[in-house]
C-alpha cells in the first residue's frame, strides 16, 4: 500500500500528450489547485511530509542493505539524506542548489556542495562549502555535420530556433510562444521553432489559436544519445529561466554551447559566470520579451555572428566537463571517508 500510493510514478495527463515523474498526490494537486499561492503552499507541504517520508524510508532500506560508507544528498531530497545519515551514522555530503536549504542537511553535512557560495543564506556553513560548476560530456555533445539534412530536410533553408527540455512554467515556455508570434509576423515561414521535450496541450492550443503550426516542430521526448544531432540541426538555442527558481548550473546551456550553438538565455547567477554577453552568447533580463525579440532578430539576420558566437561558445564550455567534476567530487568523497574512519 505504501509503495502503491506514494511511490513516484510516470503519470500521463493532458490527454496522454505529456508525462512527469511525480508522486500521485503531487500530480493530482497540480491538476486540482488553481490558485498559484495555494499550489505553492501545497507543493511545499507535500514534499516536506509524504515525499520526504517515502524517500527517507527507501534510502534507509538501501543504506542498510548495501552497507554504504557515505551518503550524497541532492538538493531536492528535502533533508532525506541527512535523516538517513543520522540513522545509520554515516557521513553526508549535501548539495545546495537554490533557496531551499534544509537546516538538518546543512548541520549534518561534512561537506556542502554549492555552485556559488553566495547562495548560502547562513554564513555559518560557508566554511565547509565547496564550489562545483556542473558540466557536459564534450565528446558526446559536439557539432554534428549534416544533421539537419538527415533529420529535417524540409527545413534546410530556414533559420531554426530551438528549445530542449521540459515545458515547466519556470522554463518560460509562454515567452517562447509569444516570441514565435512576433517573429511570424515579421518573417513568416522563413523561421522555424524546433521544440524538444514533453510538450503539453496548452502549448498546442496556443499554436492552433494563433495559426502558428507551420513554424513549429515538436519532437516529444527523444533518447538522450540522439540529442546532440537534434541540437546540431538548430541555428539558435534558447534557454529561459525564472531566476527565483533556478536550481544549479544551466546544463541545457552547456549542451547548446558544446554543440556550437549561439545561446540566448536569462541572466542568472550561473549564466553570467559562463556567458559574456555579445561574445559567446546573449543574455536577457527575465520576462523581457522585447529584449528577447531584438536579440533573436540580431542572430537571425547575421549568420556570421551566429557562426563566430557558436565557435566561441564551444571553446568556452570545454572548461566545464563531467570528467573534471567527477574527479573533484571523488577527491572530496575520499577525504570525507578518511576523516570518518
Question: Can you walk me through this structure?
Answer:
This protein is 45% helix and 16% strand. The chain has 341 residues and is an alpha/beta fold. The strands form 3 sheets. Strands 9-8-7-10-11-12 form a 6-stranded parallel β-sheet, with helices on both faces. A 4-stranded parallel β-sheet has the order 3-4-5-6, with helices on both faces. Strand 10 (236-239), helix 10 and strand 11 form a beta-alpha-beta unit. The two termini are 39 Å apart. The model is unreliable at 1-24 (pLDDT under 50).
CATH class of the largest domain: Alpha Beta
| Largest sheet: spatial strand order | 9-8-7-10-11-12
Distance between the termini: 39 Å
Give the ordered list of helices and strands.
Answer: HEEHHEHEHEEHEHEHEHEHEHEHHH
Radius of gyration equals 22 Å
Query: Count of DSSP helices?
Result: 14
CATH topology descriptor of the largest domain: Rossmann fold
Class derived from helix and strand content: alpha/beta
Low-confidence stretches: 1-24
Q: Let me know the largest β-sheet.
A: 6 strands, parallel
Mean pLDDT: 86
Spell out the key features of this protein.
4-stranded parallel β-sheet; globular; Rossmann fold; disordered N terminus; 341 residues; alpha/beta; 6-stranded parallel β-sheet
Provide a concise account of the structure shown.
This protein has helices at residues 2-6, 24-32, 36-66, 80-88, 103-108, 147-151, 173-187, 201-209, 227-232, 251-258, 271-274, 289-300, 303-317, 322-339; strands at 9-13, 18-22, 71-73, 92-96, 111-114, 129-131, 159-164, 191-196, 216-220, 236-239, 263-266, 282-284. It is an alpha/beta fold and 341 residues long.
